[in-house]
Structure formats: C-alpha cells, structure tokens
Amino acid sequence: MELENCAENPELVGTCFLKRKEELQVYEKYCQNKPRSEVVWRQCGDSLFFQECQKKLDHKLSLDAYLLKPVQRITKYQLMLKVHTVKTSEIQ
C-alpha cells in the first residue's frame, strides 16, 4: 500500500508506516549518529576535498546541509501523522 492511495481511506495511513517499519528504522540510527557527524563535519568541513566535491558536483548546499535532510524528513513524518490524527478524529 502506498501513501498516495490513502486519499480515499485516510485511516490506512498508519498502515503504510507500519509496513515500512524496518525501512524507517534507518532513520533512528541516523538521528542517533547525527551529533557524531556534526563533530566530524566541524573538524573536516573546511577541507579542500569537500570543497572540491561540492564544486565538481555543482551542489549549492554544503555537505552538512544534505546530512540534515533525513532528520528534517523524519520530523515532518511525525508532524504529518499528528495532524492527520487530529483531522481524522475531527471528521469522526
């Protein structure tokens, strides 16, 4: 079941997340290690290697901005589910 298919049956949204429980666990480990990646980035972020990679790949954002994306994504999921729960209970 895909999330897009839940428009007709919003009560099934939770099932989508439960089906992907194992896939989503990678976010848990990622978030636990985020402080360590920040320390490493502070130590190495100014290195020529990372600057060259960013330039070569024509990335506008630095690596630390990309490292933050998964953390932002998982918090958006949480907020989305909270809003969904409130909206669904209002409808019922």
SSE blueprint:
Layout (H helix, E strand, L loop, with lengths): L12 H7 L1 H24 L3 H9 L6 H29 L1
Could you please say which CATH topology applies here? Dbl Homology Domain, Chain A
Question: What's the CATH C level?
Answer: Mainly Alpha
Look at the helices and sheets and give the structural class.
mainly alpha
- How many separate domains? 1
CATH homologous superfamily heading: Dbl homology (DH) domain
Helix content: over 70%
Between the first and last Cα atoms, what is the distance in angstroms? Answer: 23 Å
Q: How confident is the prediction overall: mean pLDDT?
A: 87
Number of strands: 0
Shape estimate: elongated
Alpha carbon gyration radius: 18 Å
Number of helices: 4
Extract low-pLDDT stretches. none
Keywords: Guanine-nucleotide releasing factor
Pfam families: RhoGEF
Domain DH: 1-92
InterPro entries: DBL_dom_sf, DH_dom, RhoGEF_Guanine_NuclExch_SF
Features:
DBL_dom_sf; Dbl Homology Domain, Chain A; Guanine nucleotide exchange factor DBS; mainly alpha; 92 residues; guanine-nucleotide releasing factor; single chain
